[in-house]
Amino acid sequence: LESSHEEQNAMESDFLDWLRKQLSSAAHFPLGLSDDAALLPQCPGDRLVITTDMLMDGVDFEIERCDVQRAGRKSLAVNLSDLAAMAARPVAALISLALPRRAGRHLAEELYRGILSLADEFDVVIAGGDTNSWDGPLAISITAIGTVSEHGPLLRSGAQVGDTILVTGTLGGSILGKHFDFQPRVNEALLLSECYTLHAGMDISDGLSLDLARLARESRCGAVLEIPEIPVSTAAQQLAASSNDGRTALDHALADGEDFELLLAVPPAEAERLLADQPLKVQISPIGHFIEPLGLWQSTGDGALSPLSAQGYEHPL
Amino acid sequence: LESSHEEQNAMESDFLDWLRKQLSSAAHFPLGLSDDAALLPQCPGDRLVITTDMLMDGVDFEIERCDVQRAGRKSLAVNLSDLAAMAARPVAALISLALPRRAGRHLAEELYRGILSLADEFDVVIAGGDTNSWDGPLAISITAIGTVSEHGPLLRSGAQVGDTILVTGTLGGSILGKHFDFQPRVNEALLLSECYTLHAGMDISDGLSLDLARLARESRCGAVLEIPEIPVSTAAQQLAASSNDGRTALDHALADGEDFELLLAVPPAEAERLLADQPLKVQISPIGHFIEPLGLWQSTGDGALSPLSAQGYEHPL
């Protein structure tokens, strides 16, 4: 607004100068920081996918109590995890910041250091962004772009009755640290989609049971979980042991958000081959299969099924 | 964070159901609202450009005092203006919202109504987004994607010594209403870039003198403004008349942000042809030319030049 424009100092170009120095790869993306929009790379034969996630102080982290670089890293990592969910290769990201007025410049630099460390690791080019200060808390909005080859995109809607449910890694308790430091399963998704037939997939961001129910619904089938097969994390066990809320480690594995592991629907014979190969550094576990009756189910051991309630994080509105 | 996840109600899918109903064109973009990322359309021969802008309560509008739909419309319009600046045709947008917790659902719907009215007007498909609630004020982050034909993209860096500086519309005083209701110059930019040789261009978002100085710097030349030729808006005159701050209508035209008009560098003969044609519904005015000496200058009438200070809105950090 008019009055505030007049009061403000011309620090923007100074910060952009700093940022340009950090972006060693900016030469490959010449328009992002000098023009009103950035040109996307042309990848003949590949198709582009795009995703966006906004992270907020007090919701996704407590900026006063956490390592700012870890918060910056996380804000890009959740977007890369969404690209992994589509078996897409990350290409570029745009970074928008709403910075608390007093913390501004230093906070922006620390966030970018965290963002850029992960961007470098996955060859993600920062193609632009919008850096602002305001009287509100920190908000970080990132949009990420990736390419899918002829093997992709991996969708939520492709699971077929009889498919095996596979999951990477271990689940639950990410609040103890993994929600910051998780490795987006980009390389894992690319390798699996190249070497195996995958019918459907997504990343587990809001909890295994809730996200599996969503995948099954998009595929118009149901899903059965073999409860004893669910890979419960050490963090889930620690959380259950240290808290009096009555939730077991399994409860955490079923319902905790921010695991950022891959959830896949794979034809049974292909799943057997994949499980025998174990082609990733991270473990892959079979945790159930898809069935015709809609909804989420658990196997009770004697071959019978009982309904399982889908629990996890739903964005409130 | 863990505890807040547990407390929150499952209203997300309800809002997404509402949103899907509003998005009549969603069928053309099937993955945006059901998968982790959206597939971008393939436009053989065209190249994609991308831009992002974040608008915040208390900075870009006062949400308690304004029409919420106008704020929503503005948040998309500023992004479309950035695409117009590149002579790009808008294709898709992703919408991320940080909503104050209590106002949530109703505010989200009103914002979307404003966004969608403009999206429909420019055939922009909503390809995805991220809707959140928090304890902070409203923030809206939009990423827009466009295509450029063989005529584009229009860059800031192409102005040549001798080029005429052209501007659409009238300048200054947008705080009186235009900063909400401006028409992004998308169709104007597409028509001009198709029918005329344009060397460089941008949209005026932070004030004529500041943005012209930026364009000249990117083009490694200087710019001279013919002060009497600057098209001063009625709003700038009203603002000067009603305020005691000593700023003239011309001051407002030179330094007020959020005009969202096109600023162009056009070879002189081509500029003459364009000005004779006046091919747009909105007026186009010649306001100066580019010269070799770097910096921003004003013509003093007798052929001499004096330095002009670049004033406008710079994002503080």
Descriptive report:
The structure is a homodimer of 317-residue chains. The N terminus of chain A is likely disordered. The first copy, chain A, has a seven-stranded mixed sheet. Chain A is built from ten helices and twelve strands. At the A-B interface, helix 1, helix 2, strand 1, strand 2 and helix 3 of A face helix 1, helix 2, strand 1, strand 2 and helix 3 of B. Strand 1 of chain A pairs antiparallel with strand 2 of chain B, so a sheet runs across the interface.
Keywords:
317 residues, alpha+beta, homodimer, 10 helices
Give a summary of the structure in a few sentences.
Chain A is α+β, with helices and mostly antiparallel strands.
Question: What is the spatial order of strands in the main beta sheet of chain A?
Answer: 7-9-6-10-8-11-12
Q: Can you summarize the main beta sheet of chain A? A: 7 strands, mixed
Secondary-structure class of chain A: alpha+beta
Looking at the chains present, what oligomeric state does this protein adopt? homodimer
Strand segment count of chain A:
12
